[in-house]
Amino acid sequence: MLDRDYAEYAWNQAETLLAIDSPSGFAARAAAWVKDAFSNLGFDARLTVKGGVLVDLGGRDGENALLLEAHTDTLGGMVAEIKGNGRLRLTPLGGMRPENGETENVRVYPRSGSVYEGTLQLVNASVHVNGGYGDTKRSWDTVEVVLDEDVRSAEDTRKLGIEVGDIVCFDPRTRRTASGYLKSRFLDDKLSVGILLGFAKYLHDNAIVPGRKVYVHVTVYEEVGHGGSASVPAGVTEAISVDMGCVGEGLSCSEKQVSICAKDSGGPYSYEVVGKLIDAAQKTEADYAVDVYPHYGSDVEATLSGGADIRHGLIGAGVYASHGYERSHIDGVFNTLKVLCGYLEV
After folding, report:
1. Element (H or E) spanning 305, and its range?
2. Catalytic residues
3. Is the pLDDT assigned to residue 1 strictly greater than 90?
4. Contact predicate 239/308, CB 8 Å
């Protein structure tokens, strides 16, 4: 029987994964960790050519297989210019916002293998000096990375091995409160990778063979739109993105619930799949909400755009402050696991 220990396991796995920097295009270390985590549970896991992880969770009916999708790539930045004063202008990877990144600690990864620390700051960030501090519109041209190195020129910075095209990663600042709230950058979507590991552990511990074949695809380019566009195994008829559930004004979901998405900016999800997800939530007594997301796209939509003839759905633990400093709750993790178990009747 599914119990809360699997939600705790899911969070512990997510917490470890959150500590591995992995913006889109720079997710090899995270993908290797994910592959090993599934392999250590006894499941066949392999890296795709594109860099994602494809896992076989077993099951009997291979002609009616289910694909569960999540992503381990996150938002981040790339060095776009080494400025004359040695500081760095960035271009975003995915939907990273300068307003949300301002004053955050960062790590810069040159191709040499070194790692340098710094902070994303407003240009001329001293309030006691800059009288227009509050009036400055934040953009990627008005913020810069201030390296924690003695650099005063572009030449100084280049001597460290830093060049245009290097990856810049933001500190996730992961923590859990005594009341069960989970706070971190990049819960979208490493929390869901943890949830899928929790589901896999539940199958493993109870020697469960699902009635239909189940695959997991952990993608590495979701934040730039093409994560799930390939690597759909033969026999898959349905795919469900396990991603963050939106929490905000005009929506009914909270961080303690599992969100079932009926429609997002890409259009409606499969009416049949949404209905079965609602049935699964009710059957397992999961606390859930059905919502329409106004500004959202998911891996499974990339799967459809890639030409797969499948039905599709989207669920996830409720997450507030998406693409910023995000917050969920351990209850939302548990409710998401309940829906997965109810959907597969395991």
Report:
1. helix 299-305
2. 222
3. no
4. yes
